[in-house]
Design goal:
- By secondary structure, the protein is an alpha+beta fold.
- The chain has eight helices and 14 strands.
- The longest helix has about 80 residues.
- The chain starts with a helix and ends with a helix.
């Protein structure tokens, strides 16, 4: 056996290989073993090194306030572009003119439609005033007719009272005349020659006259009573007609007021519409893109004419994270962000050695999923740990972000990832009220 080993060793040394020479040296094995032991020790030590867990997401730069985000300026009416006052990329101040449009609808083509509508309004208001004056005159007429009716009733009642007295007087006179006639007739029959025929005839005439006068007075009393009953009907018809005319006049007044209200609404709408011909900048910003070009193009109501980027937006980052990770975040969490175009070296577990990244903190966490099944998280600059973000950033720049969580060991992190376990989090950092507190903040 020893001879065999000697022979193999001698043969290997005769081969022209550098490795065979090393195997023949006793220190080579010790060097290899030392390297292996050192590597194992380094790996074991590395497993106990600290590692900061993080939730990764990607997104873009946006504006934190909705008012600072790019906005489309639409045309509020159908129209035709008559003039442009800006160029793409130009800075405009609030109130600066962007473009001017003209009317294309037939109802508004007449440039005098507003003053003509105002004239119609004034004419209708004048008509209402005249009708109100007529209604007041009818009120006076009704009052006068009622007074005349009451006076006529009182006058006729007085006549009835007078004729009743005259009838009583005529009745008494008729009774006396008849009694005197009867006594004269009796004397004429009983005592011949004591009462003459002429005297008897005179009493007969007197009795007939008294009877005729009684009938006349009774007829006058009946006629007067009839007139008294007819007075309310006579004046009631006149008063009813006046009231009917008054009601019809007031109805016309109400219709006129309704038309005046419509005309006022039209005048107001036309006045406001005149302000829609000139499209102005709602705030300071830059003209980003014109969706319509040239002059003479037709715009529909609500159609965008340009896109405006506000001048000084408060920048933020919107990251989209997986649903399984969003529960680990809360407002105030520190985040490291890397912007496209800014060279950076990022080791998520050791943010202290990162180069070219910027600090941020979670400001808003959406309550529902965005498109793609992920949750949107808004990040704002964290000026307490780092400086502000680069001023050259433009909205829409791509971003990678890491929301920093708790510290663990490298070994625990490898074991977690190999087993697919979720990230760890301190229970004190996952209170149910965190989201609400973040919203209030």
């Amino acid at each position: 056996m020893a001879n065999t080993d000697y022979i193999i060793d001698r043969e290997l040394k005769t081969l022209p290989l550098e490795t065979t020479k090393l195997l023949g040296e006793e220190k080579t094995g010790r060097v290899v073993s030392n390297w292996i032991i050192g590597t194992l020790l380094a790996v074991i030590v590395a497993l106990f090194l600290p590692w900061q867990q993080s939730v990764r997401g990607d997104g873009t730069v946006t504006a934190f306030r909705p008012v600072d985000r790019p906005q489309d300026l639409p045309s509020r009416i159908d129209g035709r572009i008559e003039a442009w006052y800006v160029l793409e990329g130009q800075f405009v101040k609030q109130g600066d003119s962007i473009a001017r449009i003209s009317e294309i609808k037939e109802d508004y083509l007449n440039p005098n439609v507003l003053p003509l509508t105002r004239d119609q309004q004034r004419a209708k208001e004048g008509s209402i005033s005249e009708k109100l004056a007529k209604a007041r005159a009818l009120d006076v007429q009704i009052t006068q007719l009622e007074a005349q009716r009451d006076f006529k009733i009182t006058q006729t009642r007085n006549k009835v009272t007078q004729y009743e007295a005259e009838v009583r007087q005529a009745t008494l006179e008729d009774s006396v005349a008849r009694d005197q006639l009867r006594r004269r007739e009796r004397l004429f029959r009983d005592t011949l020659g004591l009462v003459s025929v002429n005297e008897l005839q005179a009493f007969q005439v007197r009795a007939q006259s008294a009877s005729a006068k009684l009938v006349e007075k009774q007829q006058m009393l009946a006629i007067t009573r009839t007139d008294l009953d007819a007075v309310p009907a006579e004046y009631g018809e006149k008063i009813a007609k006046s009231r009917s005319d008054r009601a019809a006049t007031l109805a016309e007044v109400n219709e006129g007021r309704s038309e005046v209200a419509k005309l006022k609404d039209k005048v107001g709408a036309l006045s406001v519409r005149n302000n829609f011909y000139l499209i102005t900048a709602p705030q300071d910003g830059y003209v980003v893109r014109a969706t319509k070009t040239g002059q003479g193009e037709i715009l529909k109501s609500g159609e965008t004419i340009i896109t405006l980027q506000p001048a000084r937006p408060r920048k933020a980052v919107e990251l989209f994270v997986k649903p399984m990770d969003v529960a680990l975040l809360r407002p105030g969490r520190h985040v490291r962000v890397q912007f496209d175009g800014w060279p950076a070296l990022q080791i998520s577990g050791w943010p202290q050695v990162a180069v070219g990244t910027f600090g941020g903190q979670v400001a808003v966490i959406d309550q529902f999923q965005s498109k793609g099944g992920k949750f949107r998280v808004l990040i704002v600059p964290d000026t307490t740990h780092d400086g502000d973000w680069p001023p050259q950033l433009r909205l829409g720049t791509g971003v990678n972000g890491w929301a920093m969580l708790d510290n663990v060991s490298v070994g625990w992190e490898l074991w977690r990832q190999l087993n697919g376990f979720p990230l760890s989090i301190d229970p004190a950092d996952a209170l149910p009220g965190d989201a609400v507190a973040g919203e209030k903040k």
